[in-house]
Amino acid sequence: MPLTNRVSADGGLHAVAARGTMMGNRGGRLHDPQTQTLGRARWRSRAWICCVLEFRGRKRQVMGEGYTELFFLDEVSAMAAGHRPCFECRRADALRYREAWQRGQGLSAPPSAPEMDRQLHGERTGERPVLALGDLARLPDGAMVRVGETMLTRREGRWLAWSFAGYRPADPSALAGAPETGAELLTPPASVAVLAAGFRPLWHDSAESA
Questions:
Q1: Residue pair 161/174 in contact by the 8 Å Cβ criterion
Q2: Antiparallel, parallel or unpaired: β 166-169 and 31-32
Q3: CA dihedral sign, ordered 54, 58, 62, 68
Q4: Which residues on adjacent β-strands are paired with residue 14?
Q5: What residues does 71 pair with on adjacent strands?
Q6: Which terminus of the chain faces fewer neighbouring Cβ atoms within 10 Å, N or C?
């Protein structure tokens, strides 16, 4: 029976059998260690991070006594859900993310992790922007939107449809409703600016062949 620890691109937590390529957490334990089921809380701090699956040979019991391990298809999905690179197990990537944040926001100095976390938390818990069809073509690679029930991302000028198992070419009809309803921006605007400023997230292998 799959545990409820797979993160969808809109930030929801689900029990699915498909495996992800990255893990992370939301600052603490969200589950009951005895039953391995989630409680009502969906975060314990503003620090929502995205980590590698292996680091320095550390071993963990998933959904044990420690924090709740969350799993993502890839970093594109994690960023859409509101997570950022971990400064411990992914320090080089976290520094690149912070540098791109500084460029994207036009800051005179690099932001601290808590400063980024405060802004991201406000954006992921607030009302998501709705983009007109004409705005979609200006999104950077890796930004994720939702049109109807379909979650989509851009990669090298193509639209890819997201699922827990991977990406596939988007059906042209997936964007058909955007002129009327608009497209809900899933990736927090701060991370969209990071992508636009040159940060390159890690993609699932299926994005290459989609």
A1: yes
A2: unpaired
A3: negative
A4: 6
A5: 6, 23
A6: N
Q: What are phi and psi of 25, to 5 degrees?
A: -160, 175
Q: Is 87 helix (H, G, I), strand (E, B) or coil?
A: coil
Structure tokens at 126: 């607030």
pLDDT score, position 179: 66
pLDDT of 177 above 80: no
- Angle at CA 77, nearest 5°, toward 163 and 169? 45
Residues 169, 19, 141, CA angle at the centre, nearest 5°? Answer: 40
Helices (H), 44-177: 75-80, 91-105, 113-125, 133-136
Q: What share of the chain is helix, strand, coil (3-state, %, to 5)?
A: 30, 25, 50
Beta-bridged to residue 22, according to DSSP, are 72
The beta strand positions in 31-190, using DSSP E, are 31-32, 37-38, 49-51, 70-72, 84-85, 130-131, 144-147, 150-155, 158-163, 166-169, 183-185
pLDDT of residue 56: 85
Q: Up-side HSE of residue 199: CA atoms within 13 Å toward CB?
A: 28
Contacts of residue 63, Cβ cutoff 8 Å, sequence gap at least 6: 3, 5, 31, 33, 36, 69
Mean pLDDT to the nearest integer, 136-162? 93
